[in-house]
Design goal:
The protein has 123 residues and is mainly alpha-helical. Helix content is 73%, strand content 0%.
């Protein structure tokens, strides 16, 4: 969401389309734990992956809330500290999943893995 200065500027200027996209992403991220838990108990083989997913969800949920609050603060001229902290939490969520868990079996999976590695390096 914050991959370009243009997108960030649009959000800070209350651009409706960018705000809708951010809100949709935030809704997805804040439902992370609920969605993982809705899958039910994991078979023994996948318990480690489920635990890792829930740890990542914790970061995603906090990060999404901080980004939403941070955007409101930044739009109101109160600085970008919360926005930066929220983005950091989102990055921590990605970083909490070992690269070995991000198996790239398709082109999209490979793109996700590449983005995760970029976020880890940028932290």
């Amino acid at each position: 969401m914050f991959s370009s200065q243009q997108t960030l500027t649009a959000l800070l200027n209350s651009n409706a389309a960018a705000t809708r996209k951010l809100n949709a992403s935030a809704r997805t991220l804040t439902a992370c734990s609920k969605r993982v838990k809705a899958l039910g108990a994991a078979p023994p083989k996948y318990r480690h992956a489920r635990a890792a997913a829930l740890r990542a969800c914790d970061h995603f949920e906090v990060g999404a809330d901080l980004v939403k609050l941070g955007l409101i603060a930044a739009q109101g001229g109160l600085g970008s500290d919360l926005l930066v902290e929220g983005a950091s939490k989102l990055s921590d969520g990605v970083g909490s999943i070992p690269a070995s868990e991000l198996k790239g079996s398709s082109k999209k999976d490979q793109e996700i893995e590449d983005e995760a590695n970029q976020l880890r390096q940028g932290s």
